[in-house]
Amino acid sequence: MANPLENRSLPELVTGLVSDISGLFRKEIDLAKTEASEKMSHALVGVEAFAAGLVLAICAVGVLLAALVKGLTAFLVSRGMTEPNADALSSVVVGIIVALIAWGLVSRGLAALKGETLKLERTSASLQRDVQVVKDRT
To answer: Which range of residues forms the domain containing residue 115?
Structure first.
């Protein structure tokens, strides 16, 4: 039995090829949209963590520098340190602790936003396969 593709004329074959390619690219665009949406959802998690880190850092500066500095100053004064020295040392210690906490949260948020997590691997691989299929058919 003869292959039905052998009996088709050249214009029919070209029309079929164009139809197949356009359908393939429509599917690739749909895949790219879906994958980009997934990647953006992942990136938004990173933005949320980053924003939460910034908000907590600001809150920490306001609350901790007021309350902890006073508490540590009182403790150091009760241990025999002069009040001006105790106040300065307390400010430095509390400032370093707050900065380390803020740095950790901001680093976590930025790590989620790295370029590697936003690549469209599946779409890229699928497009490469499609190009190879088109080359093989032509």
So the answer is: 38-132
